[in-house]
Specification:
Number of strands: 9
Distance between the termini: 28 Å
Strand content: 15-25%
Order of helices and strands: EEHEEEEHHHEHHHEEH
Helix content: 25-40%
Number of helices: 8
Strand order of the largest sheet: 1-4-7-5-6
Largest sheet: 5 strands, mixed
Length: 277
């Protein structure tokens, strides 16, 4: 593959942080606005990234001992860690892992998207992002892979703050940093959305944008069929927005919630993934 002139992969570990997101207005308008129905108005929602005290803390580095491998350590909000390695030269096993819907499904789905998706393209060259990923992996030192250590999680899990979307954004950001892809937050959000859609979670598109644009970043999203407009607004600070979030101690099943909502909607929708535009 011809070189694009990109800098070599970074040999130095890099600290990463991805926040969660809070929907201020317009819950579920992201998937509702995508239905092809003249009676359904474009959906709008307003989201904000959680604070620097609520997110995924991680470190990405090259792994000199595991060639063609992405290894991730995932630490939950109770401090329990799990580790799994994914073979980067076996994309179909990644897709199977994603579609199985287990603990590592969101990670596997995002890695598969980075390696195989034709939908995501460089806005300047028009080349698929996957081609840039393949080139970056080809420039890794002999015998090296990528290691992502999510060593601390301060974001409450399964509490409606998009912890799964944050994981997908974290994986996309880790590849971007390790391979020096220089992806924008919007590109990371698009890749993360596609990655999560590879799992049984048939999510909408607001979660990843809220996480990718960072702590305290207010973002307005508009959904009209397959077109999505993402407009980052000012960073909230000082005497801006004050929100009290209460944990009611209840559980929820996001997959079940989304499935029930979509079954109740008036117009059937294709199972094909819809991309952020």
């Amino acid at each position: 593959m011809a070189s694009t002139g990109s800098p070599p992969p970074s040999a130095e570990p890099a600290e990463l942080f991805v926040c969660g997101r809070l929907c201020l207005l317009g819950e579920h308008s992201d998937w509702a606005g995508a239905y092809p129905d003249d009676e359904v108005l474009p959906g709008k929602c307003l989201v904000v990234g959680t604070s620097t005290d609520q997110g995924l803390h991680a470190r990405v580095s090259l792994d000199p001992a595991r060639a063609n491998t992405f290894t991730m350590v995932s630490t939950d909000d109770a401090g329990v860690s799990r580790t799994k390695s994914f073979a980067l030269d076996d994309p179909e096993s990644l897709r199977e892992e994603a579609r199985a819907g287990g603990f590592w499904s969101h990670v596997a789905g995002t890695v598969w998207t980075l390696l195989r998706s034709e939908e995501h393209r460089d806005p300047v060259s028009g080349a698929p992002i996957r081609a840039r990923v393949a080139e970056g992996l080809g420039r890794l030192p002999a015998g090296a892979g990528i290691r992502l250590d999510n060593y601390k999680t301060t974001l409450p899990i399964k509490k409606g703050l998009s912890s799964s979307a944050a994981v997908c954004v974290l994986v996309a950001r880790a590849f971007s940093r390790a391979l020096r892809l220089r992806l924008t937050p919007l590109q990371e959000a698009r890749l993360a959305f596609s990655g999560e859609r590879e799992t049984p979670s048939r999510c909408g598109r607001m979660d990843q944008a809220g996480c990718a644009f960072g702590p305290g970043r207010l973002t307005l999203l508009t959904f009209d069929g397959e077109t999505v407009d993402v407009k980052p607004l000012q960073k909230v600070g000082g005497d801006g927005v004050h929100v009290v979030v209460a944990d009611l101690g209840a559980g929820k099943d996001t997959v079940r919630i989304l499935d029930d909502l979509q079954r109740a909607y008036p117009t059937p929708r294709s199972d094909a993934d819809r991309e952020l535009h």
